[in-house]
Amino acid sequence: MSETNSFGGWLRKNAEKYLMQAAAEDMASKYKDCTTKPLQENGIIPLFWKKVFVPIYLSIPWKIRKKIILKSAYSGVDRPKWKKFD
Question: Is there a contact between 54 and 18 (Cβ–Cβ < 8 Å)?
């Protein structure tokens, strides 16, 4: 199954989209004089991603997030054998 058709690919695509939107909203709130308010999507699905997924994801410590990302990004056979640096 290709990455774009897999659940992991779908999750990654949506997570990136809504995490980027949350970062843009954060920057706009910090620098109100220099920016305009980002475009907001309406509906139940964007609301879920913004109000549930993003806060939960951002509350997870980086070490755990890193493990989740590596486990979901590759199947067991295709996982690269990188050196550990931490």
Answer: yes
Domain boundaries, the chain: 7-73
Whole-angstrom distance, CA of residue 53 vs CA of residue 36: 24
The whole-angstrom separation of Cα 41 and Cα 24 is 13
What would the two tokens of residue 58 be?
Answer: 């951002």
Could you tell me the pTM of the whole model?
A: 0.69
Question: Residue 68, Cα to own-chain centre: how many angstroms?
Answer: 12
Report which residue type is found at 34: C
- In whole angstroms, what separates CA 74 from the centre of its chain? 17
Q: Using an 8 Å Cβ cutoff, are 38 and 28 in contact?
A: yes
82 membership: H or E segment, kind and range: none
- Residue 49 CB neighbour total at 10 angstroms: 19
* pLDDT tens digits along 29-86: 888 888 777 777 888 988 899 999 999 999 999 999 888 777 766 665 666 666 666 5
